[in-house]
Amino acid sequence: MARLILVVEDEPNLREALVDSLVADGFRVVAAADGREALARFRADGPDLILLDLMLPELSGIEVCRIIRAESGVPIVMLTAKDSELDKVVGLELGADDYVTKPFSLRELSARIRALFRRSDQAVAVELPQAVVDLGPIQADLGGRRLLRDGEVVPIKPKAFELLAFLIRHPGQVFTRDQLLEQVWGYDYGGETRTVDVHVHWLRGLIETDSGHPAFIHTVRGVGYVFRRPT
Ligand code: CA
Questions:
Q1: How far apart are CA 99 and CA 41, in angstroms?
Q2: Centroid of ligand 1 to alpha carbon of 73 (angstroms)
Q3: What is the whole-number distance in angstroms between the Cα of residue 93 and the centre of ligand 1?
Q4: pTM reported for the whole predicted model
Q5: Rounded average pLDDT over 28-52
Q6: How far is the CA of 79 from the centre of ligand 1 (A)?
Q7: Same-domain pairing of 102 and 155
Q8: Whether residue 182 sits in one domain with residue 91
Q9: Ligand 1 centroid – CA 186 distance (Å)
């Protein structure tokens, strides 16, 4: 089935133009005119990608992005009239995957959307032996970048999930905190290796039955961490 895109834009003409253009590109499309409607549509329809205007009535795009990110790893492209570095940083920090500044061409937007889908397809094809990894009572949906318990989504911080996904993809390999910072955070974190410990602590609280005796994420004293599947 064609992919479903949620278009969140309060300006009616632009919203219609976006919907028409995406439908012409072969996507299925649902639309929302404000932040609250956006959350309702997101939860009801489970879109594969979200185009999210920054300046919205009811709830701002920033708020919507933050709330959706706490629940899902769905790709989000922020749309905004502002071209300040600050907004860009805020949007990307909140977990938006890409950023388009108005006025933009529909052709450019379409190219960005295809690139995002390509990237997520490749991630699934190359890195995932299986999309959903069973961790006992918890399932890690690596493709959907979400954690499930009995089919219900468990809230998890995006970086904590990325760390978990990285460890799952490298079972039995011991990583130092610096290596994990570089692999998951992707930049030199200035020696703040405590960040890794804090995220591991969160993860254990979510996936381990007994955090004091972890079954999955093990501490290797003096080195770092390793993910093992219980035998
Ligand atoms: Ca707007």
A1: 21
A2: 23
A3: 20
A4: 0.56
A5: 94
A6: 8
A7: no
A8: no
A9: 32
